[in-house]
Amino acid sequence: MKRIWFALAFVVLCASFCVFEQAYVKDCCDNMTAILTQAQKYEKEKNKALRNEKIEELQNYWQKKNDFLFAFSEHGGLDELAENIRSLKMAHNMKSALAETKALVGIYYENEKLSFSNVF
Q1: Which of 51, 63, 97, 114 is a Cys-bridge partner for 91, taking CB atoms 3.0 to 4.6 Å apart?
Q2: What SS3 class is residue 96?
Q3: How far apart are CA 22 and CA 113, in angstroms?
């Protein structure tokens, strides 16, 4: 009987971790998308100072969340996203660089969210 309780506790622990991971990834992706949307708005308005401020905010946010995301996510997609975020300020075409980074955040979220195609 003890084995059943241990197995049940383990399943609950695993499910809790899965729910936490999904919520954490969604929150991170939503925040990064919001910051990128604001940066795109400032880029459209040709306000370089505010755009660069948002890019710095994104880079600081990424630096805080980076290690934890790498702990439980696939590294291939995250490496590309990290490289893109770190090199945003040096982009020649800022409009396309911001759009590409936003797309990479969306792709990362789609690959990490719990869905039938991701499980099987």
Answers
A1: 97
A2: helix
A3: 6
Which residues make Cβ contacts (< 8 Å) with residue 111, sequence separation at least 6? 74, 77, 118
- pTM for the model stands at 0.86
pLDDT mean over 18-32: 93
């696939």: which residue's tokens?
74
Total Cβ atoms within 10 A of residue 108: 21
CB 77 within 8 A of CB 108: yes
Question: What is the widest separation between alpha-carbon atoms in the chain?
Answer: 68
Distance, CA of 112 to CA of 107 (rounded, Å): 9
- Phi-psi label, residue 46: left if phi above 0, alpha if psi -120 to 50, beta otherwise: left
Arithmetic mean of pLDDT over the chain = 90
Backbone angles phi, psi at 115, to 5 degrees: -145, 165
Condensed to tens digits (0 to 9), the pLDDT of residues 29-87 reads 999 999 999 999 999 999 999 999 999 999 999 999 988 898 878 787 789 999 999 99
Q: Nearest Cα to 107, choosing from 78, 86, 82? A: 78
